[in-house]
Specification:
Elements lengths: L1 E8 L2 E9 L5 E5 L1 E2 L1 E2 L10 H4 L8 E5 H4 L3 H7 L2 H5 L6 E5 L17 E5 L2 E5 L1 H11 L3 E3 L13 H24 L7 E6 L5 H13 L4 E4 L9 H14 L6 E3 L5 H9 L4 E2 L3 H7 L2 E3 L19 H5 L4 H7 L12 E3 L19 H5 L2 H9 L4 H26 L3 H9 L1
Parallel strand pairs: 4-14, 5-6, 6-7, 7-10, 10-11, 11-12, 12-13, 13-14
Antiparallel strand pairs: 1-2, 2-3, 8-9, 15-16
Helix pairs in contact: 3-5, 6-7, 7-8, 8-9, 10-15, 14-15
The structure holds zinc ion.
Length: 413
Amino acid sequence: MKLELSKVVRGCRLGVLTGIGQTGQHSLEVPGCLLYTRCATVPHLTQDTLHTLSSLPAVTQVTLDSLAEHYEVLEEFKEGVRKFSGLHDTALYCSLQDPAATCPTGHITNKTVSVWGSGGRIELTVAKFMAMQAAILPDFYQSMADGETWQANTSRKRVRKAVDRTLAHLDECLILHHKTQELKQAEIFGVVEGGDIREERVRSARETAKRPVAGFVLDGFQSAAMEQDLRSQLITAVTTELPQEKPRLLQGVGRPDEVIECVEAGVDLFEGFFPFQVTERGCALCFNYIIVPDPETAGTSPPTVLESNGESPAVEKLKENGDSSPENMTQFELNLKDTRYREDFCPLVEGCGCYCCKNHKRAYIHHLLVTNELLAGVLLMLHNTAHYLGFFRALREAMAVDRLQDFKTRVLQ
Ligand SMILES: [Zn+2]
């Protein structure tokens, strides 16, 4: 794969990642996100329902923890998880952990990491990790990593050990990668660890960059793990050490405000799990990302999403109705379980082109949620995915016309 940057402004990178996939037929615009899946399927959606959405990311993320239990079946199947799961034409990226799942810590050794399936813990050596990759057949994947140093107050000694182990795992992965016929067309991303210790982050980035990797995974920056200022400083320290021509994928960050901050720190790719988390709490993304037109063209454009809906920002509603707010709800979403939507006959977002917004009203989604109908998840997932992809599209457009600050102001409004 090849990253072609069309613009770099104060660390923000706009471009296209081309040549992804076995025949190099896929490309992905950056900054962008991958398509999130669990057990290699987008939660709540069939492939046909999913493909009612336009402009889906060209790369689907599968997670080793959700597939590890099916390793023997996949190995016997021999044609990889893309065919096994009936995925349409897409490139595949395989990560170690599901970014939307929490897994128990404390099970890492010098030679192994653990993932958790429905049947419990599965311990992986590098050999087993690579055998699983050979059965999954991704187009690119992260190397095995010790990613347990994201919690604040992890000791310097433990962080150093995580960096050393992760580099050792990468070296071992690279040796096996080149020996494995099934992975001949695939590429490896090296993982940058280092917790919240700047020197270890820099060391991890420098050493990983010396290896023959196709790109970099920035691990241990999860939303809950650290303050945004510290995260931005550390990511900037890391990306400064990385070669310009290779992509940087950030794990575990999906909130729109945090995405923008991380793009400013030099990140290219994100995991697309945020719409799924919003769906699971019965919420709909409704934040505004459409920037007001230039003064020269003012007055000729249609009203923006929230203006046309007559909405006040969702965060104000939260304060009014704090009791019914689901835990972890962000300012970017509406809680459709709230009784205020029982007789709200507006679409989730006025002007949204998704199937849900074109065919259904908020009152109906509210009804589906309170009666526990599975269709609620289907409709919310469709809308939330569409809205989130629209956010990334608008982010790239704003960067292209040098209006990232306006865009940021609009999203944070
Ligand atoms: Zn919609």
